[in-house]
Prior knowledge:
By secondary structure, the protein is mainly α. The protein is about 80% helix and about 0% strand.
Amino acid sequence: MRLHAWRERLADTRVLAVVLCVTWGLMFVVQRVALEVSGPLWVAAGRAAIGAMVLLVFAGTLRDLGRRGLAIAVVLGITNQFAFLGLQVAGLRTVEAGPAAAIIYLQPVLVVVASSPLLGERLTPRRLAGALLGFAGVAVVGLHQSAAASAGGVLLLLAAAVSWSAGAIVTSASGEPIVPLVVGQHLVGAPLLVATAALTEPFPALSTKFILCVLFAGVCGSAMAWMLWSFLMRRGEAGVVSTWLFAVPVIAAILGVVLLGEPVSLALAVGIALVAVAVRLAATSERPPRERAPA
């Protein structure tokens, strides 16, 4: 019975992980389209603000957080929302969707490595190999983009990956209820992004393209996806869950080629292949619990 329950839980986790990966892969395309008619900070601010408004229906759950929980929500608002979204969209302005996703998803490598000393998770040989392959894939794409596109854009995306990694570790280690943490971080991050955008960029024209992109990004990419990601981070080991997200660059690259007509370079193809192998290694590193021998 214990083995059967483990298998059911793993299958459910995989389904949720696929939904999350497809959603976040699509976000790179949606945000690139929005950047055609808006500055990057307003795209990030609009996404965060829409996500925060959707999550207001759960605002009552904030009462479940004590002072420590509220402080953690503030930290996550800065790392997961203000810094991560702002840096990500700013980097997307000069780096295409597929390569940008590959660079951002250095995050799982950082989480896999940090989860061992900080969270006490076991760093298995397969998981370590997956992390190293994922890092190699990101390095191949990042170095190519530094030469072919914008070194500044690559650095912005790498900084976004570091910020998100910090948020992932804090989320996994906090022990606080998931829903109020997600709500709280959006309510902190969205006003910061809106204020920063208002001070640094002209307000964009409210075109159909901008409105539809921001609405989709806010509802699906922020409110739904962050809730799902935080749930998965709490449900499984942080290293395993984060390494599953190596699938996002593959999805983003495919969608970038199909929907935006982006070219497929040799560096991108090699990077995608490496991160795909990393995902496979992470998935096969999961092992069922041992059945206890009958007395």
